[in-house]
Design goal:
Blueprint lengths: L3 E9 L2 H11 L3 E8 L4 E8 L3 E8 L7 H4 L5 E9 L3 H10 L5 E6 L3 E6 L9 E6 L17 E6 L2 E7 L5 E6 L1 H14 L1
Length: 191
């Protein structure tokens, strides 16, 4: 039912302070982001390293989704955990069959389909289950162009082999000349 953890969402009071911390200090790469006028929030995705992602959300006006959540928090906190599913309809059916209530079914075209499980039904954690293509939310610098599965960058003593990851983004491997010879030999045996 679940392919992977897509991202952890952190609600913050001061977006610029949080953005500087994650982007400038920890090296997070900004990806997709947008205003959600209905919920009175702005969200911004970031990727860390090759695969990990987080989302910063902050209020854009009073009377929105985050008012109650941020009321007694100094700077912010973890708001929800998003899990990726290959089939949102199947996920809904599994939850229904197990008598686990969900709410907030939304479809944003073919790009994003979601449901939520309330913290009271998920051990104190708001869980979002989403059907999506994870590369859609990443910056071009941390993903391959459509159709590309790998790249090789020569280094002084070996190479960096980058491979597409099924959860989106790239996995990088540093290979020594000996590693390259062994990998080449094993790949040739597959043909």
């Amino acid at each position: 039912m679940i392919s992977r953890i897509d991202h952890i969402s952190i609600a913050v009071k001061d977006y610029e302070k949080a953005r500087r911390f994650f982007q400038e200090i920890l090296g997070a790469v900004p990806g997709a982001g947008a205003d959600n006028h209905d919920e009175k929030i702005f969200w911004q995705n970031f990727s860390l390293g090759d695969l990990s992602r987080l989302e910063l959300i902050y209020p854009t006006a009073q009377g929105g989704l985050l008012d109650k959540f941020l009321k007694n928090k100094k700077d912010g906190g973890v708001h929800h955990l998003t899990l990726q599913t290959p089939d949102i309809q199947k996920a809904k059916q599994i939850l229904k069959n197990q008598n686990i209530p969900y709410f907030g079914y939304n479809e944003y075209g073919d790009v994003w389909k979601e449901i939520f499980i309330h913290p009271k039904d998920a051990f104190g954690v708001l869980i979002q289950i989403a059907q999506c293509n994870p590369d859609d939310w990443l910056d071009n610098s941390v993903r391959f162009p459509k159709g590309q599965k790998w790249s090789v960058a020569k280094k002084e003593n070996g190479c960096t082999l980058s491979l597409i990851h099924p959860g989106g983004g790239k996995v990088k491997l540093e290979l020594t000349p000996e590693d390259i010879k062994n990998l080449t030999r094993e790949l040739e045996q597959c043909c």
